[in-house]
Amino acid sequence: MEKTYLMVKPDGVQRGLVGEIVARFEKKGFQLVGAKLMSVSKETAEQHYAEHKERPFFGELVDFITSSPVFAMVWEGENVIATARQMMGATNPKDAAPGTIRGDFGVTVGKNIIHGSDSPESAEREIAIFFKEEELTTYNKQINEWVY
Ligand code: IDP
Fold it and tell me: Any bridge partners for residue 40, and if so which?
């Protein structure tokens, strides 16, 4: 089954949106296989956002993600990577459709509430950055037979 890395960013945690966000993915029918509230070190932030190293906002992005705890999660499900991206909405909340997480709760691109892997390669890379293998669980969720 496909896995993705989702992270409620510092603004989402500070604004009390963790429960709301977890609930959306649970209600959709996806399965939570790992989660933790954590502080992100500068090294981890730079590794996670390495593809944006040359962008003018890189320093700001690293400062922001390390400024306060994040809620790191791994979710599992059929097409969970692409579907989670749709549920998050466009990167800039001003372009994100109502009904999406960024569309409903965000205002600016710098504080857009949530991160989600954008491909199977990023998902694998990002899960490995934030989680040790033993922090991820495998379990049979009974409701899955009513989802699939
Ligand atoms: P994504 O989070 O939707 O995958 P990316 O293009 O990978 O979007 O950008 C990573 C993060 O960098 C965004 O979520 C956003 O918080 C931040 N970001 C992107 N563009 C800008 C910008 O122009 N100014 C400030 N922050 C930005």
Answer: none
Measured in Å, residue 90 CA sits from the centre of ligand 1 at 10
How far is the C-alpha of 75 from the C-alpha of 131, rounded, in Å? 12
Residues paired with residue 71 on neighbouring β-strands, in sequence order: 8, 37
Helical H segments across the chain, by residue range: 10-14, 18-28, 42-48, 58-65, 80-88, 101-105, 120-130, 144-147
pLDDT in tens, 61-84: 999 999 999 999 999 999 999 999
Residue 129 Cα to ligand 1 midpoint, Å, equals 19
Residues with active-site annotation: 115
Say which residue the tokens 């990023």 belong to.
122
- b/e string for 74-95 if b means 16 or more Cβ within 10 A? bbbbeebbebbbebbbbeebee
ipTM for the predicted complex comes to: 0.97
Looking at ligand 1, which residue's alpha carbon is closest to its atom 26?
110
